Amino acid sequence: MAQVNPIFEDIVNANKQYSHNFSLGDAAGVANLYTENGQFLLPNSDFVTGREALQSTLQTLMDSGIKSIQLETLEVEDYGDTATEVGKYILEGDGGTMLDNGKYVVIWKKEAGQWKLHRDIINSSVVD
What we know:
By secondary structure, this protein is an alpha+beta fold. A six-stranded mixed sheet has the order 2-1-6-5-4-3, with helices on one face. It is globular, with a radius of gyration of 14 Å.
């Protein structure tokens, strides 16, 4: 039986908390899953840096009609207190309507025993 990478499981569990907080409309709760100087790199946008800016941006996304985020972790590599994750996402609106889907890369940092998003970049797979 193959061994499960415990860091992989930690990242999957952190993503479950991210999705849960987002589905509750809790932008502050999602922002708190990032490091103090965490960054969110959205397409066609500048850097969103720091928890206050992250909370504001996440609230804007929620207010725009995004009701939930599904995250699928495909790969995790760890380097001590840093890890990288590659995955896929789906953004949903009312009634589970798919609004967007794509891929992401996150650099995670371990702070006080907890994995936090440090650099988060997403990239839509939807072709116009």
